[in-house]
Amino acid sequence: LAKGMGKGGWQRYQSDLAHAMVQRLELRTQLHEAIEDEQFVLQFQPIVELADQRVTGVEALVRWQHPVRGLLGPFHFVEAAEENGAILGIGDWVMREALRQIAAWKAADPDTSLRYVSVNVSPRQFRAPDFVEQVRSALAAAGARPEWLLLEVTESLVLKDADKVVQDLRALRALGVRVAIDDFGTGYSSLSYLRQMPVDVLKLDKSFIDDILTSRQQHALVEAIVTLAGNLDLAVVAEGIEQAGQRAALDTMGCRYGQGYHFAKPLWPADIPALIESPRPAALSA
Ligand code: C2E
Ligand code: MG
Ligand code: MG
Ligand code: MG
């Protein structure tokens, strides 16, 4: 590390490191205040049908509009918020805001192809004793139907404490809310294990999609997962599609849904309606 670094370089490295640590600590202490000051905002990334690229859902992705440091992505604060508990307040706000937003889009265009909003739920948030009640209350407050909500949970959540988690997942599904396993493939769960879990959707992690055009093995693996998931009645969303060739390959494999920069980056709410206009008969739209 220190090799090739002059003495000045080493000192600069140390002070950069100290600076980064101070910044992290500062952010951490500002998180609770940020909730009260309503400094969080949402972007939405389209989830499309691979066959015709129509938008069927959007994923809500939280950002922190920091008064000094500008717009910060989840990488900068979600882990810290999970550790100090701020994620409970942030997560509740995200769910309420996401539901308010989809209710508004649905009201503006009742025939929209947009069916649901997908909301990330952190393990700590899911494990709160009243989580199911929070979901119910957020739906009611927004006047949103349960089918409009897809909750994204992690593999690690369903692997630990399975009994309590399964109970809550069942309660959510009884409400009509659907559940997805996010970043599938990065944890240690197997598809056969997942089948015992009351979930509806698998979101196949970007790391699986990256190499499908260059690695025959990776292509075969993803194809096998898509086939098995289909046989288990799980819908599959491929994450992180960046190239037209990946869309085509996944479509051919029978993967129905996808998300990624190839279709759209996360967008501000105002930019969504243009993408989700209700389908018009071809003859009329000409
Ligand atoms: P995720 O749930 O897997 O969300 C997808 C992430 O991949 C997003 O990053 C999105 O911008 C990015 N992405 C989508 N398509 C592409 C692509 O084609 N290429 C590349 N390179 N990236 C792509 P983002 O917004 O930075 O979010 C990162 C993670 O932060 C999310 O991963 C999720 O785990 C977490 N997160 C975001 N919002 C929330 C939230 O409200 N609550 C909680 N607990 N976690 C959240
Ligand atoms: Mg997600
Ligand atoms: Mg994901
Ligand atoms: Mg991911």
From TrEMBL:
The protein's name in its UniProt record: EAL domain-containing protein
EAL domain ranges (all copies): 24-280
Organism, as annotated: Actinoplanes oblitus
Portion of the full-length sequence here: 732 to 1017 of 1017
